[in-house]
Amino acid sequence: MAGIEHLCMNCMEEAVEGETCPHCGFQKGELQMRHALGYRTMLQGRYIVGKAKKCNGEGFTYIGYDTVLNCKIELREFFPQTVCGRSEPGGASVRIIGGSEILFDECLETFLTYSREIAHLRELSALQQIYDIFEENGTAYTVSEWNENITLRSFVERSGGNLNWNVARQLFMPVLNALGIMHSAGVCHLGISPDTLVILKDGKMKLVGFCISTVRRMDTDLPPDLMPGCAAIEQYVMDEPLGEPTDVYGFAATLFFALTGEMPQEAPKRRMDSRLLIPTSILKMIPPHVVTALANALQVSPQKRTATFERLRDELSAAPTVTAKIEASQPIRDLPPVRRPVQEKKGVPGFVWGIGSCVIALVVFTAIGFWWMTSGTSPEEEPVESSLAVLTPAVSGESSETVSQQESMPDTNVQMIDVPNLLGESYETIMAESSNSTQEYEVLLADKEFSDTVEEGKIISQTPEPGSKIARGGTITVVVSQGSEMRTLPDISGLSLAEASERVTAEGFMPVKEDVYSSTIEAGKMVGYKDASSGDKLQYGAQVIILMSIGPEST
């Protein structure tokens, strides 16, 4: 790195010569987003502010650079533009608009509390990691890892318009597991969509775009940030409670988009017509139990909707024999119909020229499966209202013939295998081996738990249990040890700030720097901790203040 003065403000790569960045094509004279912090603003004496990438009712999201760890970062600034502005043009300080002081302070406190809750979940690799939170300029900021990525929306578009279930399952299931753990900690996202799920360079998917709940619903004092088709009905209704069923809806809508290439209708419109639009050709490629799981999770009414990610995971993972057990213990609710819009034939007036086949799927408690039934094709007839109804395809080139009646029965030729004993095994080793060979089963991380007896990274428990039977190619979910909850503060005396930050972070703590005078430690080196000492035991994820010498106090 030739020096931070040569950093491109759009990609944070070195761009020494010329007016155009050779890495991203950014023009040096390009203006910053209105009201955003100026390029190269320094925060905490450490973080360089780059280009504002997006903004919403909560504030700005910037690319930035950490001059201590020498890496790109994502900076989030709490800056609700409807209630605040800059104290002076081009400045950094925030000025609250008169009469909005209470609202600003309440939302700021919510922002800080919510950010801390997310930071405590940093062991969940499928969620965006926050590693610093601070207040400055009359507002607050968070610092997160920067990952080169593309949105799920772009990934689906580049993949031909939709994903097959096997590809989608590998992307979505780790995120689903993380969401279950997140909600068990009482944290919601409320903005899950094809734009807040991103695909990293290693092919894994991560959830980003966390915002306070005030901007995740209508009729609040801040402008809402809702994704049509992914926002649940309760997000449009004043004072309706938001929670895990809300995120289940957003997750299911996003999975629906990935599998079909289409978003569900907006929730308020689905109040009048709750049917889902799936092309017949695509519907045939989606396993019936996945269609059932999506229909349950996309119920408009939150009272009828799949309530938890644990239940959704069970339904999405269910083989026919497992489905019967799920249905027997908790009957599946009435499903919203699934349909395709009817194509208007060329030369025919604007009314719909023909209603095609309807597929009626009746969910029963004995896992009989789905019975596909047909309806008439007269333009005057109404489609049969059923638990799952598919109208004729409306895509050019697809057949408009009715689908013949057929029966979907459990596959009696499924090969069963013994569930191996993974207890005590290294999760990372198992995952590395599975990527290099053809496995008879898939291992998914369900949770991480603290343990004083099981080494960090080793498997504590598994479902199904060892010795039981699963279908070949089935899934084994595991709980992995996170090690002891109480961790030891490492010795950082005499280290540089970068070395100390890395060492403290490696032990599971969140370091925050504070400058102090010292006549014995040279400037730029670490003195130790504030209100703590090396060797002390603190809870994993605790914030610790590390003291850096700025030399002796001048007399």
Set down the secondary structure blueprint.
Blueprint: E1 42-43, E2 47-55, E3 59-66, E4 71-78, E5 84-86, E6 94-96, H1 101-119, E7 130-136, E8 139-145, E9 149-151, H2 152-158, H3 165-184, E10 197-200, E11 205-207, H4 244-260, H5 267-270, E12 276-277, H6 280-283, H7 288-297, H8 309-317, H9 320-329, E13 338-339, E14 371-372, E15 406-407, E16 416-418, H10 427-435, E17 442-449, E18 459-463, E19 469-471, E20 475-481, E21 486-488, H11 497-506, E22 510-516, E23 526-529, E24 537-539, E25 543-549
Parallel strand pairs: 12-13, 17-20, 22-25
Antiparallel strand pairs: 1-2, 2-3, 3-4, 4-8, 5-6, 7-8, 9-10, 10-11, 14-15, 16-19, 18-20, 21-24, 23-25
Features of this protein?
555 residues; alpha+beta; Phosphorylase Kinase, domain 1; Transferase(Phosphotransferase), domain 1; 5 domains; six-stranded antiparallel sheet; 21% strand; globular
What does it look like?
The chain is an alpha+beta fold. The chain has eleven helices and 25 strands. It has five domains: 1-28, no CATH class; 31-145, Phosphorylase Kinase, domain 1 (2-Layer Sandwich), CATH 3.30.200; 149-331, Transferase(Phosphotransferase) domain 1 (Transferase(Phosphotransferase), domain 1, Orthogonal Bundle); 416-481, Trypsin Inhibitor V, Chain A; 486-549, Trypsin Inhibitor V, Chain A (2-Layer Sandwich). Helices cover 21% and strands 21% of the residues. β1 and β2 (47-55) form a beta hairpin. It is globular.
